[in-house]
Backbone:
């Protein structure tokens, strides 16, 4: 037991250390894509718009463009870590915008992930227990079709049929960011991603149905009603849990289009509006922030996996 | 004493089951690809997906086979958001253009971006994954860390940055580079894992034992035997790339507005979703069916190439 604890600790340390080059690599790459382009990067950021000279000057100062490239980057990172994230196009502090919008995105993503988990477990369990039957086949096909719906198509379908035709849910969310108002977009997200978790659940249910301990359970006279939840379902959950955790990270970085279409005032929507209006400096800032969040969440997911599954080799 | 019984029963020659060996000789010749093909050939879904891919491919190559109506010329605002009439089966867009013609012509953008992304992904991802897995050591660490960095940026966000910055140079190549320049990392990971398994096979050691060079062994033995997951990943990546292009176009980060694209048409139709939903629905259907076809194809190939899954069925 003690040995496992020690191994786990080294693994955690190692995983965090490994993340450091990834962290600097990703931010450097984004920075490079923007600021190592030929020509004046600041004017390039504005495309065909003519910006206010004062704004140009402020941006030049913020990105330290009078310095050599690598110094620019390091100064930018220093600002990033000290919480000096700059301003959005309309002059609001990025930190303030984040403080306002991040909780909303978190709420949406948590709801989507919980729904994804429920769909994966329930449908995967039933499918696994009835492998090859009608329900199983229908479920597999439905999950595949739903997963190939591009996000914006799925969102429009939901908006049109459930929001407009049936009137069961608000068409857009706006400032009303209650759990109820965001249920429809969260459900649509869950429906388009549950395929992976459902298949993992189905696979491990099929496997554990033939496992010795399940046969033993039947042999000692336990009923189906007890064996399914206790012996089959519970032992199949670990891969589904880690998959759900992984999709949590992907979703935090990937709600741009959803939040844009449903007008949910989260981080994704800030990015969406900036893209639509061509406010490139804001686009770059928020992509960087979302990437950093994504990297951090992925480390946490790996650690969760190591803690949950004692069979994992700490390499 | 003289009539000695044999100690064991020996069957008369005509009772012996020699046919077992004979049968084995006659068994069909079997290899991975042949088995996979036999498996695929029996599945209706495979033909359905293939048909969709072929139709979309034909649309991309020769759109005039499907429609005489121009998708851009002859758009009349009097037709704005009009319902379907004879000769215009899918109605009109807000600009009064024929939806069917736009759907047909849009195939070209989607497919060319999709195919280019797959080529770029393969050209970067295959050498990175194969070399990292086969040579190992410091080279592996270096290549894998580079891959980790690209893998850790959500590739849609990366493409958003590239397209925002390169706003004035929008072409099919730039979009494909923006998507494929980041999508290769997952292919490299998958191939590296496969190469690690294959390189310990007897035939690889044999090849090195008879004095083939490392590179020659990699190219002639390791790589061909590691291609299964690559083909599956690339087929599914084609579908994903089409979605990515449509999503970029939807955000206004795709090709210029004079180029037909399903994503762009969907984006432009969204403001009329209440009054003229069909201009939104048709490109969406086309996009979804095409993506679905590639994903189904990839999954079927995966299934067919996996001997374990075949045994299970």
Residues:
């Amino acid at each position: 037991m003690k040995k496992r604890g020690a191994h786990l600790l080294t693994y955690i340390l190692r995983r965090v250390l490994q993340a450091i080059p990834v962290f600097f690599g990703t931010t450097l790459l984004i920075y490079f894509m923007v600021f190592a382009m030929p020509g004046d990067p600041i004017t390039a950021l504005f495309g065909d718009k003519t910006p206010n000279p004062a704004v140009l000057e402020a941006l030049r100062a913020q990105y330290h463009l009078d310095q050599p490239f690598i110094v620019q980057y390091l100064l930018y990172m220093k600002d990033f870590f000290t919480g000096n994230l700059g301003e959005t196009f309309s002059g609001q502090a990025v930190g303030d915008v984040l403080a306002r919008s991040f909780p909303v995105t978190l709420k949406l993503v948590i709801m989507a992930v919980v729904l994804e988990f429920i769909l994966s477990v329930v449908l995967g369990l039933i499918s696994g227990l009835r492998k090859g039957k009608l329900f199983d086949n229908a479920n597999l096909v439905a999950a595949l079709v739903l997963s190939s719906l591009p996000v914006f198509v799925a969102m429009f379908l939901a908006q049109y049929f459930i929001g407009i035709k049936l009137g069961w849910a608000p068409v857009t969310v706006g400032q009303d960011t209650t759990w109820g108002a965001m249920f429809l977009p969260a459900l649509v997200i869950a429906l388009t991603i549950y395929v992976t978790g459902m298949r993992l659940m189905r696979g491990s249910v099929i496997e554990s149905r033939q496992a010795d301990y399940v046969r033993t359970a039947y042999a000692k006279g336990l009923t189906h009603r007890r064996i399914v939840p206790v012996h089959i379902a519970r032992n199949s959950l670990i891969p589904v849990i880690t998959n759900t955790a992984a999709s949590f990270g992907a979703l935090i970085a990937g709600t741009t289009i959803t939040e844009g279409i449903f007008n949910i005032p989260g981080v994704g929507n800030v990015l969406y509006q900036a893209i639509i209006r061509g406010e490139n400096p804001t686009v770059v800032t928020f992509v960087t922030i979302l990437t950093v969040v994504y990297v951090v969440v992925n480390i946490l997911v790996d650690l969760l996996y190591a803690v949950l599954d004692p069979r994992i080799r700490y390499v | 004493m003289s009539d000695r019984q044999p100690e064991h029963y020996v069957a008369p020659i005509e009772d012996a089951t020699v046919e077992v060996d004979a049968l084995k000789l006659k068994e069909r010749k079997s290899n991975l690809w042949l088995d996979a093909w036999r498996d695929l050939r029996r599945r209706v879904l495979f033909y359905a997906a293939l048909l969709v891919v072929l139709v979309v491919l034909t649309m991309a190559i020769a759109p005039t086979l499907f429609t005489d109506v121009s998708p851009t010329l002859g758009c009349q605002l009097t037709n704005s958001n009009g319902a379907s009439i004879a000769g215009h089966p899918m109605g009109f867009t807000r600009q009064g253009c024929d939806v069917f013609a736009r759907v047909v012509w849009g195939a070209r953008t989607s497919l060319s971006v999709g195919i280019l992304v797959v080529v770029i992904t393969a050209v970067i991802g295959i050498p990175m994954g194969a070399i990292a897995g086969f040579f190992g050591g410091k080279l592996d660490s270096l290549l894998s860390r580079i891959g980790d960095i690209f893998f850790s940026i959500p590739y849609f966000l990366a493409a958003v940055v590239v397209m925002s910055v390169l706003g004035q140079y929008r072409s099919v190549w730039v979009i494909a580079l923006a998507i494929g320049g980041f999508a290769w990392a997952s292919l490299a990971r998958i191939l590296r894992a496969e190469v690690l398994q294959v390189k310990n096979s007897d035939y690889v050691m044999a090849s090195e034992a008879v004095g083939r060079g490392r590179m020659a062994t990699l190219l002639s033995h390791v790589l061909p035997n590691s291609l299964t997951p690559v083909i599956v990943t690339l087929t599914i990546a084609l579908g994903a790339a089409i979605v990515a292009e449509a999503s970029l176009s939807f955000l206004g980060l795709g090709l210029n507005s004079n180029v037909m694209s399903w994503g762009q048409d969907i984006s432009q139709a969204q403001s009329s979703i209440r009054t003229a939903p069909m201009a939104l629905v048709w490109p969406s259907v086309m996009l979804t069916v095409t993506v679905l076809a590639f994903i189904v194809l990839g999954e079927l190939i995966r299934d067919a190439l996996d001997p374990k899954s075949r045994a299970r069925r």
